[in-house]
User: What shape does this take?
Amino acid sequence: MKFSRRLLGAALAFLATVTQAKPSAEPDYRSRADVQAFAQTMEAEHGIPAGEILASLAGVERDDQVIRLITPPTRPGVRSWARYRARFIEPVRIREGLAFWETYQTPLRQASQQFGVPEEIILGILGVETIFGRNTGNFTLVSALATLAFDYPPRAELFRKELTNLYLLAREQGVPATQFQGSFAGALGYPQFLPSSVRSFAVDFDGDGHVDLEQSPADAIGSIAHYLKVHGWEAGGPVALRAQLAAEAPAELLAADIVPTFLPDELVRHGVRPAAHEGYPQKAALIELVTPNATSEYWLGYQNFYVITRYNRSSFYAMAVFQLAEALRERRARGAAPSTGTK
Assistant: This one.
């Protein structure tokens, strides 16, 4: 009899585990005091009703994938220029870049003429950022930016600013904020502009009356060129040259990082000169590109190299853009003469 009671008790316990109600879902962002305060601030400072902000967050909860993707690794690997370069200077991007250039040669030429930025540099950024619009991201920006604004303390201030700009952009464009799709970090469209950059630097380059970086390659082309010009691009100026060092790289030069600081005579005094060029009478930075177990590459980075880092503050990024641009320019020059573009 005792055995039967034990069996009955076990059975009842099992039934309780399989029939118990599932725990209620985690409340969405609308219920949080900090989010409600944000919504009230949006209404007070920008005239967007708090209720509209909160309604857009219906069902939006912390996205752990966004947090995982943006959090730096606890044990970062050693940076490698060779590995980084191989991701971007590769056959797919070169093939896609040449095809994109052929298709959109008219807006590329017009943007270059208007803003002074070479066509291949615009293409270099498009290739590195999204493979010419192929990979623009599939995150809902309201969800991604809310997660980073309210659940990622290291950069919460930045992402609250971007969430604010997303709502302002949605109002300006007359579309729901929930409509925007992009990267886990809140960037959107062909050029991966953050909302604040869309509002500040994007241009209607196809002349249809509104800016669309997600569907209009021409708008993306013009917006990238405009962004670089506003940040100090020098039309006709150099970007980077290989450097030759007489001895070990001077720490004083490397300490200046990516900022063009040293005139040619200063570089020469430190044993640094262009490897195969007369150089330019402009200030330059000494750029070191490190690859583990290999000799570092050294380059002279001029003002235009620095301007590319305003897009992404990384010497690896700027050099990848530059070298992809050079690869595309050289391949196009070697190929057949382009046909007359119609787009």
Observations:
- The CA atoms of residues 6 and 12 lie 10 Å apart.
